[in-house]
Amino acid sequence: QLVESGGGLVQPGGSLRLSCAASGFTSSSYVMTWVRQAPGKGLEWVSTITASGASTYYADSVKGRFTISRDNSKNTLYLQMNSLRAEDSAIYYCAKRFTSNLDTFDVWGQGTMVTVSS
Amino acid sequence: DIQMTQSPSSLSASVGDRVTITCRAGQSISTYLNWYQQKPGKAPKLLIYAASSLQSGVPSRFSGSGSGTDFTLTISSLLPEDFATYYCQQSYIPPPTFGQGTKVEIK
After folding, report:
1. Contact between residue A114 and residue A87 where contact means Cβ atoms under 8 Å apart
2. In sequence order, what are the residues at sequence separation of 6 or more whose Cβ sits closer than 8 angstroms to the Cβ of residue A63?
3. Do the chains contact at B98 and A104, CB–CB below 8 Å?
4. Taking CB atoms and an 8 Å limit, are A103 and B96 in contact across chains?
5. Rounded Cα gap, residues A69 and A80, in angstroms
6. What average pLDDT is seen over chain A?
7. DSSP letter at A29?
8. pLDDT given for residue B44 in this prediction
9. Cα–Cα distance between A117 and A90 in angstroms, integer?
10. What's the gap in Å between the CA of B46 and the closest CA on chain A?
């Protein structure tokens, strides 16, 4: 399973670091992703990191502000979020890719809520 | 980015009804299409991948079909636990993109 943490209330321009701890499987073998969902809205892909951590990918809406990383020794995925904006307010889910080369997500965390507001 | 459009946005149905949800891609995506179910306050759950492959543990009343740009998710006989929001998602070309969702409500 995947368990996210680190969400909360932050002022515009502030920072947060989300964590996603994996258990029951070796997350270091899998590509991992963050997906977010604004209140009452649909799902939006945010970022992806390869199994080794060597390559990272970002949605245009967060590029330059968010950084995805992982610590495979701790089976943990991270999302460092800087220069936060009101439109970043959402539930953030981490998800495991089903296969190495396709963006199909078969295991999801329960989500952590991020609220950006003054 | 590839745009995904679902229809309808919501529907009302009764237990036992056959329900069909449609997803259209902005360009051909072969069969690189997934379906997820999301219940209120819960994470999405993978139901169908590669357009028609049933994820392990998902009941056989769920089925998917289609290729190219047009896809359908069918629930053959709706059960109370099936009332939820359903999303399609393409995995053909990064970034992965989702449809806006179809909410299945109780009539």
Report:
1. no
2. none
3. no
4. yes
5. 8
6. 95
7. G
8. 98
9. 12
10. 6
Mean pLDDT of B57-83: 97
Of the candidates A44, A12, A7, A35, the one whose C-alpha atom is nearest the C-alpha of residue A116 is A12
Nearest to A18 by CA among A69, A71, A70, A79: A79
A28 pLDDT band (50/70/90 cuts)? confident
Question: Do A98 and A70 touch, CB atoms closer than 8 A?
Answer: no
Interatomic CA distance for residues A16 and B40, integer angstroms: 25
Are the CB atoms for B103 and B90 separated by under 8 Å? Answer: no
pLDDT of B85 > 90? The answer is: yes
- Predicted confidence at residue A29, as pLDDT, reads 87
Q: Tens of pLDDT along A4-25?
A: 999 999 999 999 999 999 998 8
Q: Assess B107–A contact: CB distance below 8 Å, yes or no.
A: no
A63: number of Cβ within 10 Å = 10
